[in-house]
């Protein structure tokens, strides 16, 4: 499985879409980036593609508009979608806020114990 690397422009675009919220953490992930709230990823970058974790009702709306699974084609990330290519920055910002609200309401993820 090949993991695409984002360009500096891709990473900059990703960062500009992240809602301003003190709970948000941005972490590197295999050369890409993830935006987390309470230990759960709500938004990710995979090469040039940005994916969002949204409630199923929103995912269904986006699928009808052409949204695709997010992540590697061989093993896409369940519950995450990449927006259709024609989505503008203002709308992407709205979806980023919805993803933060959705994932922020989930129980906090327990940190994994440290490896020996």
Write the layout of secondary structure elements.
Elements: H1 8-17, E1 24-29, E2 32-37, E3 40-46, E4 49-53, H2 56-64, E5 68-70, E6 77-82, H3 89-104
Antiparallel strand pairs: 1-2, 2-3, 3-4, 4-6, 5-6
Low-confidence runs? none
Cross-sheet strand order for the largest sheet = 1-2-3-4-6-5
Number of helices: 3
**β-sheet strand percentage:** 25-35%
Q: Helices and strands: which structural class? A: alpha+beta
Query: Over the alpha carbons, how many angstroms does the gyration radius reach?
Result: 14 Å
Notable features of this structure?
single chain, 6 strands, six-stranded antiparallel beta sheet, alpha+beta, globular, 116 residues
Structure description:
The protein is an alpha+beta fold. 30% of the residues lie in helices and 28% in strands. It is built from 3 helices and 6 strands; from the N terminus they run αββββαββα. The protein has helices at residues 8-17, 56-64, 89-104; strands spanning 24-29, 32-37, 40-46, 49-53, 68-70, 77-82. The chain has a 6-stranded antiparallel β-sheet with strand order 1-2-3-4-6-5. A hairpin with a 2-residue loop joins strand 1 (24-29) and strand 2.
Q: What is this structure, in a nutshell?
A:
With about 120 residues, this protein is α+β, with helices and mostly antiparallel strands. Helices cover about 30% and strands about 30% of the residues.
């Amino acid at each position: 499985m090949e993991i695409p690397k984002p360009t500096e422009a891709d990473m900059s675009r990703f960062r500009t879409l992240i809602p301003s919220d003190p709970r948000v953490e941005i972490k590197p992930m295999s050369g890409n980036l993830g935006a987390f709230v309470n230990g759960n990823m709500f938004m990710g970058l995979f090469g040039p593609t940005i994916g969002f974790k949204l409630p199923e009702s929103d995912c269904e709306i986006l699928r009808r508009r052409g949204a695709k699974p997010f992540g590697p084609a061989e093993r896409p990330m369940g519950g995450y979608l990449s927006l259709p290519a024609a989505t503008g920055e203002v709308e992407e910002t709205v979806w980023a806020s919805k993803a933060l609200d959705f994932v922020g309401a989930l129980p906090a993820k327990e940190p994994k114990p440290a490896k020996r």
